[in-house]
Amino acid sequence: MSVIVVFLLSLSVFVGGQSLGKCPKKETMKTFDPKEFEGQWYEVEKTFYMMEMTASCTSFNFTLNPDGTSYKVHIGTKNRM
After folding, report:
1. Strands 71-79 and 39-42, how do they pair?
2. What is the pLDDT of residues 37-76, one digit of tens each?
3. I need a surface site. Which of 8, 14, 26, 73 has the fewest CB within 10 A?
4. How many CB atoms lie within 10 A of CB 41?
5. 78/73 Cα distance (integer angstroms)
């Protein structure tokens, strides 16, 4: 019986953090400066996804558009094959 209770409690904690419904509302950073985000960024970690497994040296170059509301993103990668 106690194993079932522990399992149900664990499941409720997991489901409480995950959701199949609407996305949770998150606050935006109050101190975010879009100009500081510009520039060259490098990928540090990958997921186990076939398209990512064949790529290496992935980098992203973010350029803020003149209106300041969005970025132009250039993605650079090398194919391992």
Report:
1. unpaired
2. 899 999 887 777 777 777 788 899 999 999 888 899 998 8
3. 26
4. 13
5. 17
